[in-house]
Model the fold of this input.
Amino acid sequence: MYGFDLYYLVLVVPALLLSMWAQFRVKSTFAKYSRMSNSRGLTGAAAARILMEANGVRNVAIEEVAGSLTDHYDPGSRVLRLSRPVYAAASVAAVGVAAHETGHAIQHARSYGPLVLRSALVPVANIGSSIGPWLAVAGIIMSFPLLLNIGIILFAGAVAFYLITLPVEINASTRALAALRRANVLAADELNGVRKVLTAAALTYVASALMALMNLIRLVLLSRRRR
Done:
């Protein structure tokens, strides 16, 4: 148990603290720029439609969903779903988040490789993240190496999903900023606000990937210790 706690303390706790800080940062940054109206009075939904049309993205619906920061693009149903504080709000933050999700729609239309790979990894990630760690821990407790290895392999698939998510999200933000600039949707100072919102959001993906990776390393070290 001492080794178990030590690995958790050294590897997982720092990643957990980073994740908590990243969540606080993205919420506070979004709240700050949600209070700043954009000069054109465009809502998140309107900005998304302008950017999709400017980039030749067709047949993508835009829907409002409940919650805050629940925005996402669904490539399976080709639907851009924007949360209530984004869909109908004419703030800098709303346009920034909507532009980021539109970036994913543009990726899909362009068959962006990492996005295709991430979509393919979704079933593996769902299984690996839900049962992989439990199987690994059960293998350690029962001294059953085969069960331990299966758990680690399954969880490694989930970690791969988190790692491939990083370039997908960063690229979506890069596309968003470029599209906003080309379409003259926002003023220069407003674009700077969008950049800050998207940078804060990117930190949450970095923290999630680091958390997953540290947990995987911890499981591998535990397995080697048992052997």
